[in-house]
């Protein structure tokens, strides 16, 4: 079956599933394979649960004409997504970076949805499977789609650009993330800049943080760039107006008070303002959108529990985001401060050095109690308390209490699942 023929079926059954646990009626099930699973084996189960068709690549599992056999299920999903992207008329804004991708994507979406019919990446489905699935949520009347792109190795962003074919792009920053796959921060810059490379090669528009020296250098001489800056006059001026704990920004004599914790969310918010202005969303609508956005899913959430104010930022962590979170936390108020810091993953040979750097950094700050959790933090040299596992810190907290009315920061990589601390505080 050709991609145009498959697309005709998709238009009649416009829901895609790759997991039999989430089968919807009249959907198309793509039987993906991985290192530890084979979706072909679950095709019959998908039909029993209501799927209209099953796309598979192992003929022995095809027992009726509702099974469509292709050479490669994943490649077919990706090609269908590109075909559908071109079938629809939506403009695509691609978004990548080391930190802040998902928050920035959500902010851009709430701003643009004030004027346009939009769709955006759900959660952080931003890889070679998630990007096609996002593209396949675009409707014929969708005007703008915001597509998040993640990567942990070189050439991944370039590949995702071939699938999504973006009209616009924005890179949040170049931080110390996924160093295990990229090798160094220079590798991170090269990998994330693959979005720039695609857009420049195809004469597309780029949104940028003009205060970021790396972005300025990369885009020197490129005409179709639109930036924000706290001071450079030739770019859209957006000023940082404080963060204690919520970030505020000022543009055109209007102060926008977000519900996002920390100065590190300034650039995320500023990007949404810039892109809203580019697409002619009114400033009052931009302000209303950003001020109404409340983060969730363990991303810089403010939680009040007993007498404590907790900043839960446990969705993910890398050295750059950890340092930014700590600097912001150190500057907050006069209440007793307590930090629970969990291991940062995917740092490869830099892991020991980066964890020691964070331990040394936090030792210089005005934070009364610091608890370092995980195998990497357990190896650092520090006067602060260390725990090699979540179970160890759990046992400690069962016997000890924290100062009343504490400000508490919880931050670590996703694999540490430090949100579990909430039940112990």
Q: How many DSSP E strands?
A: 20
Strand fraction: 15-25%
Second rung of CATH, namely the architecture of the largest domain: 3-Layer(aba) Sandwich
Mean pLDDT: 92
Tally of alpha and pi helices: 15
The rough form would be described as globular
* Secondary structure category: alpha/beta
Q: If strands are numbered along the chain, what order do they take across the biggest sheet?
A: 6-7-5-8-9-10-11
Unreliable stretches, pLDDT < 50, 5 or more residues? Answer: none
CATH homologous superfamily title of the largest domain: Mur-like, catalytic domain
Helix content: 25-40%
Question: Radius of gyration, rounded?
Answer: 23 Å
CATH topology of the largest domain: UDP-N-acetylmuramoyl-L-alanine:D-glutamate ligase
* Number of self-contained structural domains: 3
**Termini gap:** 57 Å
Q: CATH first level of the largest domain: which class? A: Alpha Beta
Catalytic activity: D-alanyl-D-alanine + UDP-N-acetyl-alpha-D-muramoyl-L-alanyl-gamma-D-glutamyl-meso-2,6-diaminopimelate + ATP = UDP-N-acetyl-alpha-D-muramoyl-L-alanyl-gamma-D-glutamyl-meso-2,6-diaminopimeloyl-D-alanyl-D-alanine + ADP + phosphate + H(+)
Domain Mur ligase N-terminal catalytic: 15-82
Family: Belongs to the MurCDEF family. MurF subfamily.
GO molecular function, one term: UDP-N-acetylmuramoylalanyl-D-glutamyl-2,6-diaminopimelate-D-alanyl-D-alanine ligase activity
